[in-house]
Fold these 4 entries.
Entry 1:
Amino acid sequence: MAKANLIARKENILWFKDIKKEDIPSVGGKGANLGEMAGNFPVPDGFCVTVNSYKKFLEDTGVGKQIFDLLAALKVEDTEALDTTSKKIRDLIMKQEFPEAIKKELLDHYNKLPIKTVAIRSSATAEDLPTASFAGQQDTYLFIEGEDKVVHSVQKCWASLFTSRAIYYREHNKFKHEDVLISVVVQIMIDPKYAGVMFTLDPVHKKFILIEFVEGVGEKLVSGEVTPNTYFMDKKTHKVSEKSLQFEMDTKMAEDVSLVGEKIEDHYKMPMDVEFAYDNDGKLWILQARPITTL
């Protein structure tokens, strides 16, 4: 992956079309990858509330010093103290007024989207990196509609930078809390018939493309709520080599996902972990991509 820009950009909000993979300091790993893919792959439209908005929130409300003082006094191996401090920080963030100027800019962008039901996802600056995986530590909110709910969900994403798990992981991996910032992705919500995850190099045999499908939203797969259809695809022919089925589904969809996976891997020049969805019209959408850190 190309080296990230060392300095964050000045904008408070950036459309995907204006973002590249080097923009991790501005929009986090998730946002940077969505921007990078938006012009090259079928990515639902959207924008990122940049780290500048989060920093402005900390400054305008004055909660930044309180947060980092609480963390400086915390011993993370004390589970009870960790949970108490985490809740205190998140409550503190949620009690604050959302900065008016950023709210106006956020809603101006939201109202320009052609579809008003959105997915709102956290994108931390230390997330989805080739060297560390913070994936899943911050919050995601699906099927959000309406101005007030959008604003509230963005603020909840900011607060989720301080879950117990996220605090502990940063301490354990020697990331300074002050150095890890958060962006928020606001993206048109795909109401999926099928969704899933693809590893462009499978972690088992290390020679196939591994694809897992579920019916409905992909979060069911991430949470382990359901058992997916599993396909090991030949990387050259994009035909099924092995499979394990839980429900009936057209195998061509797995082949089509596999072909797109090859193109994404070629684009990034490294194996990738990709989230995707098929809508009710049978169109394939790419929702996220990150480097595989477990190989």
Entry 2:
Amino acid sequence: MGLTILGTGRHFPKDRATNADLARVMDTEPDWIKQRTGIEARHFAGPGEWTSDLGAEAAKKAIARAGLQPSDIDYVITATMTPDHHFPGPAGMIGAKLGIPGVPCLDVRQQCASWIFQLQLAHALTLAGQARNVLIVGAEAHAGFMPWEDWDYLYGRGGNPPSKEAYDRATRHRGLAVLFGDGGGAVVLKKTDDDKRGVIGIDVHTDGRYVDFIYIRSGFNHRPYATKEMLDDDLHIPDMRGKDLFKHAVTKLPQSVRALCEKSNVKLDEVDLFVAHQANDRINGAVRDALKVSADKVPSNIARYGNTSSATIPILLDELNEQGRLKPGMLVCFLALGAGLHWGSALMRL
């Protein structure tokens, strides 16, 4: 029993911030951001624009491109690290916005590594006969934790220059703020009778000892879980140990890919494309070098969108699909690492 990609879609907020825009509100240089991350611009959700909105719009495009109606979807698996609410997760809201009440909608919380786990779940559901058409959605609205307040000034649409206190605050969070962008990506997967296509193997790992590499300190570990003092102390903004994340990613991801290829009896040079989570171009470059893979096999779009967390791989897949780079019979390796820490890789024959 196989699994095939039937349709893909992506959606972004209309507002776009360049590196030069970020330099308006913090002490940074556009070239420094580009050199350190590979990012040149990103989109940010506006007021009233929710994660579920971005995910639903991407999902509508994926379903349409699959030649289906929303009513043809049997199961929805959604991932985000920026849910509309603390609870419930956005999966049910995305289902409602698609007009499919009653269809099971599952939220997963593997953040930037979500796609690997979502693919594993979709594979298991179809193998078990529980679903035929599975919709995978990744969506993020990171704008809510960005460390500035005057968005008009950021975009050069008026507003007021930040005070020294506000400028210094944004600068303290610079290493995080320059990385993230908002958007949604979606993929429709279909069960097929062709056992020569679909998931060949998956290698996933979790190690909660490293939860503090990137996490939000506020939450239900406090009583009450939200106070003015917590906002004043920026406990709602993710705390990130960038150097530790980099070391873990460039070590664990090549290990996972090699282990997966070995147990799947696949040689690295047999893989046609390596579709990696778009966290930082320097990370993906180091992983590529460790695997001795040519750059043309490792596509990147981080320059245009930044790190959209759970949405990066679905968004990149949609671009590759649109460009005609996803060919029947191709062997694709997915790889990602995210907060938790969660990481892994997957092999799929298109």
Entry 3:
Amino acid sequence: MKILVIGGGGREHALVWRLARDGHAVIAAPGNPGIEALAPCHPVAVGDLDGLVALASAEAVDLVVVGPEAPLVAGLADRLRAAGVPTFGPSASGARLEGSKVFSKQLFARHGIPTAAFEVCATVAEADAAIARLGGDVVVKADGLAAGKGVVVCSDPDQARAAARDMLEAHRFGASGDRLVIERKLPGREVSILALTDGVRLEVLAPAEDHKTIFDGDRGPNTGGMGTVSPAWVSDDVVARIRREVLEPTVRGLAAEGIDYRGVLYAGLMVGDDGTPWCLEYNCRFGDPETQPVLARLQGDLGALLAGAAAGAMPEGTLAWDPRAAVCVVLAAAGYPASPRTGDPIDGLDDPALAGDDVVVFHAGTARRDGRLVTAGGRVLGVTALGDGVEAARRRAYDAVARIRFDGMQLRRDIGARRG
């Protein structure tokens, strides 16, 4: 198949890499310097919906895979399908699962999907009252898209009230913070589960565990993700419960409300000590950096599965998993996540040790400037390695990291270290 992958980050590099390895003819828009080594890149921005529809039509692609959430929320999948282009990605109505935390939490309530107790607030007075009712141990979330940073986990009422004011009065996240979801913080351990759906059937991918905060030991502010490990710590029994109690009711609920959802359901979950899963939130696209280790372990034709889902008839039994573990370590720019610095030259990527089958460096925020590869985003690279067990994968990933250099480089040293 000829497949157009839309986006230019680490997730899209991983998708292009996987699809190209499976023998598909892949093109990308806009792509990045890492993707350019694998596929032709077209300089069409992810926000240029007209340009993307025109590109897909002109290139006569068999499938479009939409990487980022913003164009999905803006209705790109609807427009591509209206133009007769098979598309893997939910409609705008389905993408509200990520585009509006208020919508998603209310969907959970309507369809009995387990989640934390929550309240929706649009004013400081409403937020203060909700915090008082729920207690200070809450999570404050901006309703709309905030690049993975619109969530503040609070440990006392003062911190919660300050977070609410930061969003509602200081407008830290613009219109995305005009409404808030304030929810009770749940005990347990987080896990990410990605599932593919054709609107009826589910294919659950191997679980991954993200490391959200900037510093080791889960300290510091939240980021878009500083690293992942797959498989995650959850047992097969817990994954089965997540499928039965969270994912399947979500697919049924979307269908019951007339929502066309052909794409990824990316669930962020909290799992209690007794194995009870609680859905914290959904994303409507592949996770970044979860996609990198998951696709590194994938065996089988991903393209056939995505095309089947786009057509509403996903094939069964097409995926298998490498028994080895995969670890992805994110290298972030100086100043990330508050104000990342760009333009720092990147060295070391031509090291022969980074060219093997078991180590892949995915480009997330890079650019070429005056012939040099430079940083061009908050999360710059995702160094992903396979190994016989998590510890072996960690050693291989960090050995690869040691060969890469740029000024101000930030990373966590404990990706995959919290097992059991």
Entry 4:
Amino acid sequence: MDAATDSIDSASVGDPALFQPLATLEHELASAVPAPRDRGRVVLLVSRGDGGRRMTPSRAVLTPQSGMPGDAWGRRQRRPSREAQLTVMQANVAALIANGQPLALFGDNLILDLDLSDGNLPPGSRVRTGRAVLEVTTLPHNGCHKFRARFGAAALRFTLKAELRHLNLRGVYMQVVEDGEVGVGDPVEIISRAGGLAEARHYVRQ
């Protein structure tokens, strides 16, 4: 774990001086180099320990039973939904919103250099991440009050803007369908795209 992330937990908030205005976020997104569509790489792994304390292992074994080892998902008292097993965010979008803050502040389990839009990776699509196979679920990944406290109200509006929702700027949920080890820097490759499922994700307006 690096020193920049070892103090981040569920109660952590962001630095308002680094919050980006909506116009800047939209402009930078429009001018950004597109993320890879077919084959990318793993940028960051995050497991949320007790109290949401961030752990950033260099490698982990993902399984259908536990998801990310040690993560909050697997510690829930009631049977956790596999639809929400792993939270995943696109690396260039995360870097844009974070604006210099640690990417572990998001709390997403995987930060991937890969296009996560509905057009490229609709629900039901599968990706090989390291040696694990993951499937995109239909559950929408929406921002919340914690996201607003960490990155600002404009960032939350940015991720929820109707005309941008198909880009999944806040990320997506995935579930593990084949266990395997994954590490930072490992390749991520789309192995199947679900057809006709781009409309299956039901967004919640906030």
